[in-house]
Amino acid sequence: MPMISSAVFHDATIARLSVEGSVIHIEVNEFALSPVEMCPPTRISIRNCREILRDGLLAEGIVPESEDGEIYRIEEDAVGITLMVIWFKYKPRTESLVAYKFVGADLDVTAL
């Protein structure tokens, strides 16, 4: 399956979030790369994570925090992977931006 750059995930709706052993999988629906180009449904896999920080605080894992989530940004650096997600609630209507840091992690991005 072809690899897709992690830089394209702005506004990608999270369809499924799952954990298999030590691997976190996030599947996203088709989304717009530009007004004329679509990205197919895609799986983001985060592997070899030593610890997870949620907004800078140690977390046990990552779970959906509301009915709907959208990836705002994914960044890779020397420390690991940063995943920023906007979680939307509908009753009452709220949204929150959460930053997850996966320390020491590797990222695989593959079209489904």
List the helices and strands and how they pair.
Elements: E1 12-20, E2 23-28, E3 31-34, E4 37-39, E5 42-47, E6 51-54, E7 57-59, E8 68-76, E9 80-90, E10 93-103, E11 106-111
Antiparallel strand pairs: 1-2, 1-8, 2-5, 3-4, 5-11, 6-7, 6-10, 8-9, 9-10
Question: What distance separates the N and C termini?
Answer: 7 Å
Rounded mean pLDDT is 87
SS field, number of helical segments: 0
Q: What is the 3D form? A: globular
The count of domains is 1
Structural class: mainly beta
Outline the biggest β-sheet. 9 strands, antiparallel
Element-level helix/strand string: EEEEEEEEEEE
Give the tally of β-strands.
11
**Poorly predicted segments:** none
- Strand percentage lies at over 45%
List keywords for this structure.
112 residues; nine-stranded antiparallel β-sheet; two-stranded antiparallel sheet
Question: Please, could you describe this protein's structure?
Answer:
A hairpin with a 3-residue loop joins strand 8 (68-76) and strand 9. The protein is built from no helices and 11 strands. Helix content is 0%, strand content 64%. Strands 7-6-10-9-8-1-2-5-11 form a 9-stranded antiparallel beta sheet, with no helix packed on it. It has a two-stranded antiparallel sheet with strand order 3-4. It has 112 residues and is mainly β. It has strands at 12-20, 23-28, 31-34, 37-39, 42-47, 51-54, 57-59, 68-76, 80-90, 93-103, 106-111. It has one domain (6-111).
Concise structural overview:
By secondary structure, this protein is mainly beta. The protein is built from no helices and eleven strands. The chain has a nine-stranded antiparallel beta sheet, with no helix packed on it.
